[in-house]
Design goal:
The structure is a single chain. This protein is an all-alpha fold. 77% of the residues lie in helices and 0% in strands. α1 packs antiparallel against α5, α1 packs antiparallel against α7 and α10 packs antiparallel against α13. The longest helix has 30 residues. The relative contact order is 0.16. The C terminus is likely disordered.
């Protein structure tokens, strides 16, 4: 399989695992709350179990890295994602939903790490990471188009069909080559830069997930029913375009420098809807959020590999996963009076993340240019 086909196959895998398998919950969430009577606090718990599953999947891949390059694990995880979406309609029960979303989180971590590894260090990375945005846009269009016609259960069934379609195109993606940079004496190069990057990525996971979980619900509150899912479509379109933009900018600046810029723009996306209400502010926030969160993932993965963090994709994904688990739990007590306090908290967290990314850039070891 040539590089371009691998890139589009990985795009389909990331669309299935992330854009749909994980994030379709976000645009369906307001309908689930309205039609089942579930509270924002309980649906935040369901989201947290999905993030817990993502963390557990990443940890497992860090401990047993051979599974991160196993086509059998890729295919089993794609099947599990489809099954998890079908299972969501079988009961209106928070513990059941939590268990199902836990499984979906594990499966999405496996597919993400596998597909990210398949394109690591290649020109196809920008193509592949666009898949997250493609899947998000598709999920948003699904809810915008049908949310007023069918119920929440039907949307989960349709999501399962779309995930299966993307998964079919990702089925044959081959595993990527392992990548383990080191210094000239063979010692790991991570050090201060590695720890700073890991903490930055952890905080990015904590901050971004607040928007990733509650942006649609916040926009939908007090507005027309289609406005929330429409904002999610904007997020997806921006996320689909952004990897190619960040990849082009990467020719001129280091991954860490661009990561700082992406995180600071994401700060604006977090605080804007809290400070300025209305459709225009929501649209700007959606563009900035979609345009930065996949870029932050892609740039962090590249920086981690360059710095020399062992098993960087799985390790960084685990750190990100911990942040995602904590994010909804941290802001859940703030949701009774709306989402403003939660978004401002996320913005503060992302400021610290940007500072740590800058530290990682300054502490990054010089690359090895040849034998000593």
């Amino acid at each position: 399989m040539n590089a371009r086909r691998i890139g589009f196959g990985a795009l389909a895998g990331l669309a299935a695992a992330m854009g749909l398998g994980r994030f379709v919950y976000t645009p369906i969430l307001p309908l689930m709350e309205a039609q089942t009577g579930a509270s924002p606090q309980s649906t935040a718990v369901v989201a947290t179990f999905n993030y817990l599953g993502y963390f557990l999947g990443a940890v497992a891949l860090a401990i047993w890295p051979r599974f991160a390059r196993s086509p059998l694990m890729l295919r089993a995880s794609l099947v599990a994602l489809v099954a998890s979406e079908v299972a969501m309609v079988l009961a209106v029960n928070v513990p059941w939903w939590s268990a199902v979303r836990l499984i979906a989180g594990v499966a999405s971590a496996v597919v993400f790490v596998y597909c990210a590894g398949a394109v690591a260090g290649t020109a196809s990375a920008g193509i592949a990471f666009a898949g997250v945005g493609v899947g998000i846009a598709v999920s948003g269009v699904l809810v915008v188009g049908l949310g007023e016609v069918v119920d929440w259960r039907s949307l989960w069934w349709l999501s399962a069909l779309l995930t299966a379609a993307f998964g079919w195109f990702a089925w044959g993606v081959p595993p990527g080559a392992s990548r383990a940079p080191a210094t000239s004496d063979g010692a790991p190069r991570a050090g201060v830069a590695g720890w700073s990057l890991g903490l930055s990525y952890f905080l990015e996971g904590l901050g971004y997930i607040v928007l990733g979980t509650f942006l649609v619900a916040a926009v939908a509150t007090g507005g027309r029913s289609w406005e929330g899912p429409a904002a999610w479509v904007i997020v997806g379109l921006a996320a689909a375009a952004s990897p190619m933009i960040w990849a082009r900018l990467r020719r001129y600046r280091s991954a860490e420098a661009l990561l700082v810029i992406a995180l600071l723009l994401q700060v604006v996306s977090a605080v804007l809807p809290a400070l300025v209400h209305g459709a225009a502010a929501a649209a700007v926030s959606a563009v900035l959020f979609g345009g930065t969160f996949i870029g932050a993932v892609m740039l962090s993965m590249e920086a981690g590999a360059d710095i020399g963090i062992p098993r960087s994709a799985a390790v960084l994904t685990a750190a990100y996963g911990i942040g995602q688990i904590l994010g909804p739990l941290v802001v859940a007590p703030m949701l009774g009076d709306g989402y403003d306090a939660a978004f401002l908290t996320a913005g503060g967290v992302l400021v610290v993340s940007a500072v740590l990314a800058a530290v990682a850039g300054r502490a990054r070891p010089a690359p090895v240019t040849g034998p000593v």
